Amino acid sequence: MKYYAGIGSRKTPKHILDLMTHTAKYMADKNWTLRSGAAEGADQAFEAGAADLKEIFTANSNIPTKAMYTVEKYHPAPNYLTPYVKRLMARNAMQIFGSNMDTPVTFVICWTPDGANGTTIPTSRSSGGTGQAIRIAAANKIKVLNLGDKETFQRVVSRTSYLL
Prior knowledge:
It is a single chain. By secondary structure, the protein is of the alpha/beta class. It is 43% helix and 13% strand.
């Protein structure tokens, strides 16, 4: 199986949501499995295009201890998070590594207002909860394609434009 994470802000602009759905259709046609989190906005847009090729993780998922440990390791202020938000942050690790935390995605595609990719563009407060997944991916050398970065947006559009 080939996996990618399709995630992002609940406040993703409509034209980006449409691109996410089309990208998920493109990826499903290529037999890639989506991992996402069922949140409004970006997650639901990806899920709409992925057909049955998806693994969806929520705060109510069976979250392994290894995923919970990632909250302390990668979140900039874990002590300020409620237990529920810690579960949301841990489910971000599952989006990257799967339900058993042993099968990483090949890449992450997302949208945040700051265009963060965790390497050349660091996460910020405006990365929101998606920033946790970006930090985990970047620390594990998994490529992050953030559609909030204009150059990345253009590259993704050029690869999937026949669907638009």
